[in-house]
Amino acid sequence: MAALSGLASALESYRGRDRLIRTLGYCCQLVGGVLVEQRATRSEVGTRLLVLSSQLSHCRTILRLFDDLAMFVYTKQYGLGAEEEDVFVRCVSVLGNLADQLYYPCEHVAWAADAKILHVDSARWWTLSTTFWGLSLLLGIARSLWMVLKLRRRLRSPQVASLSWWPRGKQRAVEAQIRSEVLTLLSNLADLANAVHWLPPGILWSGCLPPWVVGLLGTISSLLSVYQAVQAGGQANADP
């Protein structure tokens, strides 16, 4: 009953609902892609699951029409990252925020072109939005790698090792942050593989991944995101 209540509470928020739709959509693509590729008697079920996955993805695209303002407020609040001590993290975060901010209007134009609202080439705008998404993921990967290396060096530094009084709770907090960064890194890597797949033909492995592989990568990324959200929620409830 507690799990059901937690799910209902998560669905009341936009982010929680988006995570569920994303996870469900990629799971449908994974299972549907496997069934279709096996050409089994249930291939019709697989085709329907792929259609459902496409519709769920379209649903998220429409919901993102309203994300620009929230992203702008976040970007404005972060600014040039004056509160960030690490210069590399600050630069990567600022560039990542800029890429995210530009991603949304490009996707909106692409969606409007597909819906015949605007008379422009939707393919170019989809490519541009995917490029900004991929750039944001690359920057996120660079940030997570840097943070993992930095935090591990901090734990293994002779100064820390020689301090027997260093609080155990502080050490656990650093280890938890490392795990969080590793999960973010894996999630971004899975999404980046899909982002490259959706770029125009001729770029690395673009267009080469079968639907079930795209679904698998998206499912991994989505489940990692859900896990991190649950962990963050549990930690927030545990804090006094």
Automatic annotation (TrEMBL):
Q: Does the keyword Metal-binding apply?
A: no
Q: Which Pfam families match?
A: PEX11
Q: Where, per UniProt, does this protein localize? A: Peroxisome membrane
**Quick check: keyword Nucleotide-binding in the entry?**
no
InterPro entries of this UniProt entry?
Answer: PEX11, PEX11C_met
Task: Name the principal localization, coarsely classed.
Answer: membrane
Query: What keywords tag this UniProt record?
Result: Membrane, Peroxisome, Transmembrane, Transmembrane helix
State the name under which the record lists this protein: Peroxisomal biosis factor 11 gamma
**Example of a GO cellular component annotation carried by this entry:** peroxisomal membrane
Q: Where are the transmembrane segments?
A: 125-146
Gene Ontology BP, a term: peroxisome fission
Q: Which gene encodes it?
A: PEX11G
Organism, by scientific name, is Sus scrofa (Pig)
